[in-house]
Amino acid sequence: MHIIKKKNILLHVSLPAAPTLRNLRCSRYPDIHSLADAVPGIIIQDRAPSTVRKYSVAFSAWQKWAEPRGIKVLPTSGPEFSLYLVHLLQTTDSLASIQAAAFGVPWAHQKACLPSLSYHPLVKQLLEACTRILGTCPKNRKMPITADQVKEVVHKFGSGNLSELQITCLISIGFAAFLRWDDLKDLRRCDLLLTGDHMSISLAKRKNDQFREGSTIPVACSHSSSCPEVVTERFLLAG
User: C-alpha dihedral over 128, 130, 131, 132, to 10 degrees?
Assistant: First the structure.
């Protein structure tokens, strides 16, 4: 059991220890022993905590499937693991579940300093086939929002009550600044700077901000009724 500690969050991850550390853990020097014990908890932090959690769950699911069938969990062979991918393809319509297994189990092998399965030709071909079978024709494809639709929302709800103004403001800002809902839901008044000719949006973190350096997004002001800055000023005054 390894533990990730980040931003006061503890994430418990069940992964096997690297066999290369076993001899070091038997050292008669206490500091060598403690350093060897610290290695597993550090090397699993090469991914975001959410990714590590997903990989750990995928590895546990593989373990529950393989052990009753007499298949060695770690290390395992490419042909044996490919059977598990076929099993997932036959029992689920979720490409994400198959991808989590295809990346999570090789990742666990890597953490244990074992050869990765990612480069096995059979595993690679199966993953490509599963992606083709499940990923090319989404049943519920989402259509992108258009500028005309945003203008229609602003004209219809831009003068309504505070709740309608808030939703209109978020839609207008999100469309103009290319923001996801995860970026919009945590916005505060202090994150917005209105200058009259543009609006600056400060974000502490984004999905593509791997190092959490933060970013500032400028949005030009068009002074039209559907302009994000105009809608935002209207919402702030109403609030």
Answer: 90
Provide φ and ψ at 194, rounded to 5°. Answer: -100, 120
Q: pTM, whole model, 2 decimals?
A: 0.49
Give 56's Cβ-side CA count (13 Å radius): 19
What is the per-residue pLDDT for 8? 36
What's the pLDDT at 12?
43
Residue 4: which H helix or E strand, with range? strand 2-6
Q: What is the C-alpha to C-alpha distance for residues 232 and 140, in angstroms, rounded to an integer?
A: 32
| Token pair for 233 | 């000023």
What 3-state class would DSSP assign to 181? helix
Q: Which H or E run includes 198?
A: strand 198-203
Say whether 108 sits in a helix, a strand or coil: helix
Residues of the chain scoring pLDDT < 70: 1-30, 33, 36, 136-141
Stated as kind and residue range, the H or E segment containing 219 is strand 215-220
* Rounded Cα distance, 98 and 89, in Å: 7
Q: What is the pLDDT of residue 81?
A: 92
